[in-house]
Write a structure and sequence with these properties.
CATH architecture of the largest domain: 3-Layer(aba) Sandwich
Number of strands: 14
Radius of gyration: 24 Å
CATH topology of the largest domain: Rossmann fold
Largest sheet: 8 strands, mixed
Strand order of the largest sheet: 3-4-6-5-9-10-11-12
Shape: globular
Helix content: 40-55%
Number of domains: 2
Length: 602
């Protein structure tokens, strides 16, 4: 254990006042206060997070990757947090939770928030960025991580002190926080000028994302955040829908920064699990609707199909994986439907693309992530109020998927669900949006070179895959694969019918056989990647676009296994799942199509 970490852990174990007696400390991290359970819990999280941040930075510096699950410094920090909570909190003293539940919640906050910072900095838990850069660039990232860690620590100390005081000035604290954020960003800009080239985010965005984490840490480690109003957590949930009913929630543009292509406010649809069913089993579905890229097709589509640019009129799909019928194993899960209204495959980063006299807001990923945060805060509020273990993002199990353009959005945003939203037990299911490249200039790869920067998408793609070729499905599968399987459920479940003229045309394949051959090649090239799984249906007569919400496919079989059973196995026994694909009659029904260039699983 490092000397600095040992000091911090000793501080956590010893100088936070235990019990309900008054005490004082000269340390800035431990204000003079009566160390009631809530005060001790919040201080314990802040100190634990500081220790783990330092340990994580050392792991990358010394080993080039994230710390092992049994890293001694991190385990010691968690043990110290546990001891503090057990000594300071009686059963039910923190939000009505048991002492064990309190410990588990706060340990998860400590580790998850540190993980988000370090993965954002060094390129995921696999350290993909760190592995391929110079020593000078490594020093740059180390300095950035150290600066943001200190910024987070200082902000949590100030917030904890404020909440513990009777006369805290929340407005003054917000001003101080804003000034500290500006100073931290300026330090990083000066000491790590290559940050944006290395991980796709500039210093301002890097600090802004840490500020979001600060809000979530405050919300999770305090049973009451008053007088502060963090933009995360149960106090941020403005509307709680009735259980078992679809409810539209319109997002406040001023609060969330969201916008649809026609300038209207973004809206989502939520159906909380019916009473008697767990809220934290969630299916998220991203709507499809094609893509427009250039002036002529965008203007034409806006004129002919204005509903594609508005999120408030769409209704959730009702079949297959999103059905409420008893045959669907996910029927009684919480369901979330994220409409598609910017024609940007959910990667638009909040820019307005100008086509002469026609302008189109590209806000797809802003809308998606805001919608998911709204859902998170609703679940958080309801589960905390229900008692038990309260809201635990690491216990939540989710299917995060989409259809057509929504499938593209799934593969481009999956890393965020895991790394920033911190829902580790999530599997992705992109349906009919393989993002295959045709090998020409006008193809997914070539357009990625143009549209990723034009739509402001780079800061929202994985920090280890954000150039134009990362628009291509197999490229991003390969980049994501080393990051997955931290827990068994984490995997990409890729689905499509092999004959799909809509998907073929959207990817600029003008020959059907070429498309089928490209899909089969993509399967063979990626099937052995860890956590990349395929389910390809084999209707060679009919062009079928999107399969998971269609009952005939969701309950149909490929290679002896029903799709619904395959999905259920992916959740309940994920390590046992195998690919499902068949040759079918393609080589005879579609001249020019070739057999799979690899052996199919039995």
């Amino acid at each position: 254990m490092s000397f600095v970490n040992s000091q911090a852990i000793a501080l956590l174990a010893g100088s936070i006042c235990l019990g309900l007696i008054g005490c004082s400390s000269s340390s800035d991290n431990n204000p003079a206060t009566s160390a009631s359970c809530p005060v001790a819990a919040a201080q314990a999280v802040q100190i634990c997070l500081g220790v783990v941040n330092e340990a994580e930075r050392a792991c990358y510096q010394n080993g080039g990757t994230a710390c092992d699950v049994d890293d001694a410094d991190i385990l010691d920090a968690h043990d110290a947090l546990q001891n503090t909570v057990q000594d300071s909190c009686t059963e039910g003293a923190f939000m009505g939770l048991s002492t064990d539940a309190t410990v588990g919640r706060l340990q998860n906050v400590c580790r998850a928030q540190s993980d988000s910072i370090v993965w954002r900095t060094f390129g995921g838990p696999q350290g993909a960025v760190w592995a391929d850069i110079t020593d000078q660039d490594r020093d740059c990232l180390q300095t950035a991580h150290e600066t943001v860690s200190q910024f987070v620590d200082d902000a949590l100390v100030a917030a904890n002190n404020c909440i513990a005081e009777d006369d805290c000035d929340a407005a003054a604290l917000a001003d101080e926080q804003g000034n500290a954020a500006v100073a931290a960003a300026a330090t990083i800009t000066q000491t790590c000028p290559a940050l944006e080239d290395l991980i796709a985010v500039n210093a301002d965005t890097y600090i802004e994302r840490a500020e979001d984490q600060i809000d979530c840490t405050i919300a999770a480690s305090h049973q009451s955040t008053a007088p502060l109003n963090p933009g995360c957590g149960p106090s941020n949930a403005e509307l709680v829908p009735p259980r078992g009913e679809w409810t539209q929630i319109i997002l406040d543009e001023d609060k969330w920064g969201t916008m649809c292509g026609d300038g209207t406010e973004y809206a989502i649809q939520v159906r909380l699990a019916p009473e008697g069913n767990p809220l934290d089993r969630v299916v998220i579905a991203l709507e499809g609707g094609g893509v427009c890229l250039f002036e002529d097709d965008c203007k034409s589509r806006f004129a002919s199909s204005p509903q594609l640019f508005n999120a408030q009129d769409g209704l959730p799909l009702g079949g297959g994986i999103v059905s409420d019928e008893p045959d669907n194993p996910f029927a009684n899960w919480t369901k979330v439907y994220l409409p598609y209204c910017n024609q940007d495959v959910f990667i638009g980063g909040g820019v307005v693309e100008s086509f002469g006299d026609f302008e189109l807001p590209r806000y797809g990923t802003i809308n998606l992530r805001a919608g998911m945060r709204v859902v998170r805060d609703i679940l958080w509020k309801e589960m905390d109020e229900a008692g038990g273990n309260g809201f635990r993002p690491d216990d939540l199990i989710a299917l995060f998927g989409g259809f057509s353009a929504g499938a593209y959005g799934t593969i481009y945003n999956f890393h965020w669900v895991l790394d920033d939203l911190q829902w580790p037990q999530t599997a992705a299911f992109p349906d009919a949006g393989g993002a295959l490249d045709n090998g020409s200039v006008v193809g997914v790869r070539g357009l990625g070179d143009i549209k990723i920067p034009a739509w402001g998408a780079q800061p929202f793609l994985p920090p280890y895959c954000f150039e134009g070729d990362c628009a291509v499905g197999p490229v991003i599968y390969e980049a994501l694969s080393p990051r997955l399987k931290q827990v068994p459920v984490q995997q990409m479940l890729i689905l499509s019918n092999q004959k799909d003229n809509t998907q073929q045309n959207d990817a600029f394949f003008f020959d059907e056989a070429q498309w089928i051959n490209a899909m089969r090649s993509a399967y063979c090239e990626t099937k052995d990647l860890p956590a990349i799984q395929w389910y390809l249906t084999s209707d060679s007569v009919n062009s079928v676009h999107v399969v998971t919400p269609r009952d005939e496919f969701f309950y149909g079989e490929v290679a002896g296994e029903r799709m619904s059973d395959w999905f259920w196995r992916a959740i309940t026994d994920p390590d046992s799942i195998v690919d499902r694909a068949e040759e079918g009659n393609f080589t005879t029904d579609i001249p020019g199509s070739n057999p799979f260039p690899c052996e199919l699983p039995m």
